[in-house]
């Protein structure tokens, strides 16, 4: 059975890696620590400059989805307000559909077929 208290680490090891494994190793060899600096023998550490991550453009589908969610939220708010004021279901449906179409046009969202019927 392994007992780490009895097994000493090699003398002069850095971070549990024997010095012989570090000789001649550097970023070219793929030995880079978590903070971006490379492992070297001795006390010197080579600093590597971190390049900024490339900025990704959001997908059009995700942006459209967010816009549609905002439109539907506003439509639900209008529907609830009209229900509280006593409008009939037909009036509510007609007004909400008109309001939805106006918001979709304003937001530049192209609805998919079958998502909401046109009045």
Report on the architecture of this protein.
This protein has 119 residues and is mainly alpha-helical. Helix 2 packs antiparallel against helix 3. The radius of gyration is 32 Å and the shape is elongated. It starts with 18 loop residues before the first helix and ends in a 12-residue tail after the last helix. The model has no long low-confidence stretch (mean pLDDT 74). GO terms for molecular function: mRNA binding.
Which key terms come to mind for this protein?
0% strand, mainly alpha, elongated, single chain, 119 residues, 40% helix, 3 helices
Percent in helix: 40-55%
- Overall number of strands: 0
Shape estimate: elongated
Summarize model confidence as the mean pLDDT.
Answer: 74
Pfam families: cwf21
Region (Disordered): 1-57
GO cellular component, one term: nucleus
Biased composition (Low complexity): 30-43
Concise overview:
The chain is an all-alpha fold.
Provide the fold topology.
Elements: H1 19-22, H2 60-84, H3 89-107
InterPro entries: mRNA_splic_Cwf21_dom (IPR013170), SRRM_Domain-Containing (IPR052109)
Protein name: CWF21 domain-containing protein
Domain CWF21: 63-108
